[in-house]
Design goal:
- The protein is mainly α and 183 residues long.
- It has a domain of 122 residues.
- The protein is 66% helix and 10% strand.
- It is built from three helices and two strands; from the N terminus they run αββαα.
- Helix 2 runs antiparallel to helix 3.
- The two termini are 25 Å apart.
């Protein structure tokens, strides 16, 4: 899920850009020496002058604000780490919710089977004269409520499962403009 997360991708890109800018800023603090060769004619071609020169700025002349570059880089790295941790927490919470919803659905289905069996037994007991009508109606009401709870739990489990699949980009490709997904 983290591999295809657009928010994390944006933060990682920003962090890489800030790292490159910080490297560039530190590289500009080091003076670049310049070596040259000079040739010229003086006094209407009577004197020919050739020379080599070396030019190097002093490091104090290279005043580039390096502090802001490294602090921006550190900030971008911290923001990337924070976003990753937050998204990992979100993924863990979504996964835990999906597992818990599935387990809850299983428990509700087991309970529904037991409640329906009890309602059928009470209906048979009523037909034999062993139980009252109110007991049968209460058992049927409990069976209907249990059926509703099981259906709701199943819907919750399906929602959690499909939320995970959607966040993992496994339902359908979201990058329609990519190379393989074009038709």
């Amino acid at each position: 899920m983290l591999d295809d997360n657009h928010e994390l991708g944006m933060v990682q890109s920003d962090s890489r850009i800030q790292q490159l800018l910080a490297k560039r800023s530190s590289a500009e603090r080091v003076p670049d020496p310049t070596i040259g060769l000079r040739y010229s004619n003086e006094k209407e071609g009577e004197e020919k002058v050739a020379g080599i020169y070396v030019w190097c700025r002093s490091p104090s002349a290279c005043v580039v604000p390096m502090r802001s570059g490294t602090s921006s880089c550190r900030y971008a790295q911290q923001r990337e780490a924070f976003t990753r941790r937050r998204l990992e927490g979100d993924v863990y919470a979504a996964y835990t919710q999906a597992v818990n919803s599935y387990q809850s659905g299983c428990r509700h289905r087991k309970r529904l089977a037991a409640v329906r069996e009890n309602a059928e037994l009470l209906a048979r007991a009523y037909s034999l004269g062993e139980s009252s009508l109110s007991d049968v109606l209460n058992a049927r009401r409990m069976a209907l409520e249990s059926s509703l709870a099981a259906t709701t739990a199943q819907l919750d489990a399906n929602e959690a499962r499909y939320r995970l699949l959607l966040d993992a980009h496994q339902l359908w490709p979201l990058d329609v403009h990519g190379g393989d997904n074009q038709k």
